[in-house]
Design goal:
mainly beta, 147 residues, Immunoglobulin-like
Length: 147
Amino acid sequence: MALPSIRRPGDTMLTPRAFEPLYEQMEQLVNAAFSGITTEMPWAPATDVSETDDAYVVEAELPGLKKDEIDVSLHDRELAITGEVKERERRGLRHRKQRRSGRFECRVYLPGDIDADRIDASLSDGVLTVTVPKAKTEKDRHIEIKG
C-alpha cells in the first residue's frame, strides 16, 4: 500500500534538471584540480563485437573521424583500433564539454582461428566496421585407418 504524499507550502519538487548547475560546477572544479596532469590515458570508443558462422564483426563508434585518422592492426588474434580525436577550437566561453577528445584505443581478443589475409574494414556514418573472417576448416572428413 502506497503512503500518501504530503506537500507543505514552500516545498519544491526536485527534478534531474535542477541538478545540472551543480554537476557543471563540480565538473569545472575537477577540471581545474586536475588540469596540470599531462599523462592522459586513452579512452575506449563504444564497441560491439559479434560473431557469425564465418566471421567476427567489430563495430566501433568514431563520429567525425576520417579513415586516415584511425589505425586498425592485428597481432596474433588481438585486434587493435587506435587513433586520436583532436580538440576542436573553442568558440567563446565553454559552458559544457561532453564530447571526447585525445587518444583512443580499443583492443578485442578474437576467440577462434582467423584468416588474417581477408580482414575488411569500412567507415560509414561514424561507425567503423571490421570484419575478420574465420579460418576455413574442413568440417566433414573421412579419415583413413592405416596398419
